[in-house]
Structure formats: C-alpha cells, structure tokens
From TrEMBL:
GO terms for cellular component: nucleus. GO terms for molecular function: DNA binding; zinc ion binding. Residues 146-186, 437-480 are annotated as: Disordered. It comes from Pleurotus ostreatus (strain PC15). It comes from the Eukaryota. This is Replication protein A subunit. Keywords: DNA replication, DNA-binding, Metal-binding, Nucleus, Zinc, Zinc-finger. Residues 151-170, 453-470 have a biased composition (Polar residues). Residues 515-652 form the Replication factor A C-terminal domain. SUPFAM superfamilies: Nucleic acid-binding proteins (SSF50249). Coiled coil: none annotated.
Length: 665
C-alpha cells in the first residue's frame, strides 16, 4: 500500500524530535491536532511493562514510549509492527540527555499491519537541549523570556520551611501570582503541562490545577498526620480538553496547608512525587498516578486567576445506579428525602462518624448516600432540598449504595437548569409519590463473576422474589438473604479460579463473592475465640523472656486480645461454619476480647465466660459475609452481624405482599 492511501502526517516526527512540547504548544499551526503515523517496531521493557516503539511519518523515524494506559492495545495485538494509528495527545522532553516522546492517547487504529510506508530514515540527534528549546520557541511562535533560568526561580510557597531542593523551570502559561496573605507573590511567567501528561518519565513539570475537594486531617498507622486533595486541570489555555483529575496526599506542613488551601482555588504545583495507582484503586476518570506533597514540593496560589469555572456534571438517574460496576463513580442530582443523625462506627483503625442520606429523583428510585467523618458532622441541609453530587463511589453493602469519598464533591442548592427542573417536578408531583430503593445488579444479593448467563437467565423469573429485574421490593430484592443451602450449592455460588488464586487470607487479597444470611447462632467453639495481638500492629504475639513479641519484633508487657472466632449458624435449610474477627466478635458477644479473656482465666469467673457464649447461641442475626480461599480451602468470613430487627422484617414482608410478586400469584 502506498504512502498517500493512509495520509501519514508529513513532518510530525521532525517537529516532535526537535521541540520540548506539551499540550500548550500542541499542535503547531502547520500540523493537524490528530496525526497519523506508522509503528515500525514495538519492544517491551521492565516490570510493570513499558512499551517502546519506533514511529514513522513516511519521511522520518523517531523513538517513542506508550503511556501505561495504552498497554492493553499492545496486549490485544491492535498495536504491533506495521500498524497505522492516529493520536492527538503527545508530549516531548529531554531526559538524561535523550529525546523522550510520549504518546498519551491513541484515537484510532486504522490498520493493524501493513508494509513500511515510504522510505523513512532516522533523524540525526539534536545538538543540545538548549537548541531544542530555542527551536521550540521559534516554531511555536512564543516569546520565551530571557530570564528563563531555573537557578533564578524563587519558590513562593513550600510545604515545609527551608530552601527547596527541587528547582523547576519557568512554566509556560503566562500568569502573575501576586502576594495574598501567607501566599508569596511572583511576577514570572509560568509554563504548565496538562495533568493528563504526567507519567513516570516526567521531570521538571509544573501543573496549574484547581482544588475540587479536600479531606479532613487523618492519622495514618504510623501516627503521621496527612490529608488528601483532588485536583483538576485549570490552565485555561483554550487548547486543553482534558478533564482528568488527580489525587494528592499532603504529608508535610499538614496543619498549615490544610488551613490555607481552599476548595475552588487554583494553584501552581511542582516538585511533587508521582506514585503509581494500583489497578484495583484506579477510577474511570482518574489519573494513573497520585501526587505526594513532600518536602520538595512547591505550591503557589494563582491569585489573579479568573473566577473558577463551574463544575461539569454527567448526571445519571438513580434507577440506573445498580447497573454501574462496584467501585466506579457517578454524578447524582436529587432531592434530600431523609437525613439520618450522625452515628459513630468502630473499625480496625478506630472510631469514625458517618451519616446516611436518602436521595430521590424523577426515576422514582431512592439511594442511600453515606457521608464520613467531617462531611457527616458538618452537613447542614433540610429535607426536600436539592443536592448535586459529583464523583460518588458505587458500593454494594446491604444493597447498592453510594459513598462520598475524599475526591467527591457535594453542592446544596446548585445553580443548574436541571436543579430548577427537579425542584418544579418535586413540588408539583414528586412530593406525593412513593420511591423504591435501588436494586442490586446481581442476583440474590450476590456479586460474583462465576455465574453463567444461563443461570442468570433462569433467575430472571418475574414471579421470583429474588428477581433483580423490575421493581425493587422494599429492599428485599437484592439484599434478601440467601439460604445456607444456596451458599453451599457449588453450582449456585462459585468463585472463578483466577479470583480464587488471588484471594488472600484475612481480606489481604481480593475478596470472593459477597452474600447475606439470616440465621441463628447454634454453636461457638470455646477453644478458638480470641488470640493475643500486638497493641501496635495487631499481629499475633508470643511469650518470650517475660515479654510479648510479635513477628515485627514489637515488644509489650501485655497483649491486646482480639477476636478470631469460629461459630456455626443454622437456618431451615442447613448449617454452616463461619469465621469472624474482632469488630464482628464484639457485636456478637457484646463485650471486648480483653474482657472475655479476663473472665476465662480468672479463678471463679469461668461460668461468666460460658454464660456469655451461651447467651449468644440461639440468637438470630443478619450476617453480611464473603468467601475467602486459603491453602485450597474455602472459608466463609463474616463482615458484619446485625441483630434481627423484627419490626423492620414485618414491614418488609408487608411490602412484599403488596408487590407485583405477590399480586401475580
């Protein structure tokens, strides 16, 4: 095939090779934004894998690197030797004396494999980094100031007192930052790169970003204070189309920065550490990396920035939330139907506060939104007010629910056309209607990839109480507990082999399918109730030389006992053995592991220990559980145990009897 049949973009390789570019200077006037090139070779390097490629525009050849998010195109065979592709987002810089071109997006793969087009040749190396910068200025038509000298750059704000060890080049986007309060001023011109272009090869970068959310100060396991902020690109250069967000963790100057940084303010950020985001924590619109604001980070307030642009939303109706995958994010606009009081919850990391909101919209569905810590305490809104949420996380806990995370935002009385329409609808029609809770997307409260389409189709019987299609039945549809026989039925509840191999002990790996049971405790193993744990790391300790020592060599005079309990529960279909840990053990027995251990080993108090175990037996609970695999054995682990609420159960049965399931009998 000939050169002209694919219309490779003439001159793009030469321009990329001789210019330091980012999206501000991309593309130049003589090159279209979407460029077509041919890939002549693909090489894999390192772990995690990086793919180096050679690209041709029909006349010249240069080397480039694919961004990690494009690796799947190589693995699937779409990008390979001879492929013709088009791209529209690229960056180019010098790194350790070599030209580095990074392709961030592949718009389309025009063909997977053809013979080499034209007679391209490798370009000779540029004379120096300085000449490359000079050519960049000439071809981009920009006036780079003479004072473009990193050695003369003075930081206007640092995350910790003292001189910065990370000197940044002058950013390119023109903006002056006058002094405002504690923020120092600068009159220098700034060059910024898009957030989307940050990667493991990035060096000497500066971003211009707006803070869209800020978390409370939290204490980590090693007792250090930190907080998180969510940043979104705000360079306002007219070219950036990126809406990629990036999360930043502030670990230095925490108290000072937490008080001075405000949501909606725009900052210049440079010198932060880039950390790769684990695949399981990556969000659909999130960046592949997180930022860590450490000792060398420079943060400058853009005081003369125009008023921040309003948030852009992509609202989804509440009744479509169950179709979203667990862990994804969504934007919701709804009416505050119910606001619960603040509750205090206890976890392995300590106590925290939360609040439940019930949100409804025109789809006549309702969903529970959970606020945590500071957001729960500071929330002030009356019922029936309109609230816009951005970036809520989809979770599946006792049915589908949404969570306000550190990267989410919430606006009460948003100034939106959709909000006005929703207010008019609710005042005229919605306030007199009934709303159905969201249904889970999985059958019978189970989210498992191990169910075949045939089995799913069998469960979609309109007369089945566990049917997940159609109306939600007062919370019974997805969250209705399974029977023990259903859980033990290997055909009904199976864990895929790949998931079984990756599952870890004590929740350390990927958890298996989740399910609910409603059953009675019939037996608790008295010999396996507690274990002596390290007060620092919670690992099991052993007695050595008069002290208690854990595998991490922490020593303590007395251990902190924790629950590791085995019990059997039963319902009319059978019985099953479950494993439970500390928090659930407290909920079941009503006392701490330390107190129970004291009763067992104190002379004369053993009958009280036995009485506590007997009192728990014969009690009925609703258990939220998951499946775990360890050493080839299947374990059923309790995540939460709640005493049965008989009044609520009666109400749910009444709702069920009034539902389509009952009336169709």
């Amino acid at each position: 095939m000939g050169f002209r049949e694919f219309e490779l973009t003439d001159g793009v390789c030469n321009w990329l090779y001789h210019n330091d570019i980012n999206e501000v200077h991309w593309p130049p006037a003589h090159i279209p934004r979407s460029c077509t090139i041919q890939i002549l070779s693909v090489k894999r390097a390192g772990e995690p894998p990086k793919f180096r490629i050679t690209i041709s525009d029909g006349a010249n050849i240069i080397q480039a690197v694919l961004r990690d998010s494009l690796n799947n195109l190589v693995d699937s065979g779409r990008i390979r030797k001879g492929a013709v592709v088009s791209f529209s987002c690229v960056s180019s810089d010098f790194l350790r004396g070599k030209r580095l071109v990074i392709i961030h997006t592949i718009d389309s793969v025009l063909t997977s494999e053809v013979e080499k087009i034209g007679d391209p040749t490798f370009l000779p190396p540029p004379s120096s980094v300085a000449s490359g910068i000079a050519r960049d200025a000439a071809m981009a038509g920009s006036n780079i100031p003479a004072e473009l000298n990193p050695a003369r750059t003075q930081p206007s704000y640092q995350s910790q007192a003292g001189p910065s060890r990370n000197t940044q080049p002058e950013p390119r986007t023109r903006a002056q930052v006058p002094a405002t309060g504690s923020q120092a001023s600068t009159s220098r011109e700034l060059i910024t790169v898009p957030i989307a272009s940050l990667n493991s090869y990035s060096a000497n970068w500066t971003i211009k970003a707006k803070i869209v959310s800020k978390s409370d100060i939290i204490t980590s396991k090693n007792l250090n204070n930190l907080f998180f902020v969510e940043l979104v690109d705000d360079r306002r250069d007219g070219r950036s189309q990126s809406q990629t967000t990036i999360k930043a963790m502030v670990v230095n100057g925490v108290n000072e920065l937490h008080g001075s940084m405000r949501e909606g303010q725009i900052y210049y950020v440079s010198g932060a550490k880039l950390e790769k985001v684990e695949e399981r924590y990556r969000r659909p619109n999130g960046h592949d990396f997180n930022l860590v604001f450490n000792r060398g980070t420079k943060l400058e307030l853009c005081a003369d920035a125009p008023p921040p642009a309003p948030l852009t939303y992509n609202f989804v109706p509440i009744n479509s939330v169950p179709q979203l995958p667990t862990g994804s994010t969504c934007d919701i606009l709804g009416v505050l139907y119910k606001c619960d009081p603040v509750k205090e919850q206890e976890s392995a990391k300590g106590k925290f506060k939360l609040r439940y909101l019930t949100i409804v919209d025109k789809s006549r569905a309702s969903v529970r939104v959970t606020l945590f810590r500071g957001a729960a305490e500071k929330f002030e809104a009356d019922e029936e007010e309109i609230i816009a949420f951005k970036g809520l996380e989809v979770q599946d806990f006792r049915g589908v629910c949404l969570q306000l995370s550190s990267s989410s935002s919430m606006t009460i009385h948003p100034d939106l056309t959709e909000a006005s329409d929703l207010r008019g609808w609710y005042d005229s029609v919605g306030s007199s209607q009934s709303f159905h809770p969201c249904s889970s997307a999985s059958a019978s409260g189970l989210r498992s990839a191990g169910n075949s389409p045939q089995k799913q189709k069998q469960r979609q019987n309109p007369n089945d109480v566990n049917n997940t299609d159609g109306d939600s039945i007062g919370g019974l549809s997805p969250a209705r507990p399974l029977t023990i026989r259903q859980v033990l039925d290997e055909e009904y509840l199976s864990m895929p082999e790949s998931q079984s191999q990756s599952a870890g002990r004590y929740g350390g790996g990927k958890k298996g399918p989740k399910f609910s049971l409603q059953a009675t405790v019939v037996w608790i193993d008295p010999s396996r109730v507690t274990y002596p744990g390290c007060p620092t790391c919670l690992k099991k300790v052993e007695r050595k030389d008069g002290s208690w020592v854990c595998p991490r060599k922490h020593t303590s005079a007395e251990p902190s006992y924790r629950y590791l309990m085995y019990l059997k529960i039963a319902d009319p279909s059978g019985e099953i053995e479950l494993q439970t840990f500390d928090q659930t053990g407290k909920a079941l027995l009503g006392t701490s592991a330390n107190e129970l251990e004291h009763l067992r080993h104190t002379p004369g108090l053993l009958p009280q220990f036995q009485a506590i175990l007997r009192a728990t037996c014969s009690r009925e609970f609703t258990f939220e559980c998951h499946i775990d695999q360890y050493d080839g054995r299947t374990k059923y682990v309790i995540d939460q145990a709640m005493p049965l609420d008989y009044a609520n159960e009666a109400g749910q049965l009444l709702t069920l009897l009034r539902s389509r399931w009952a009336t169709s009998k």
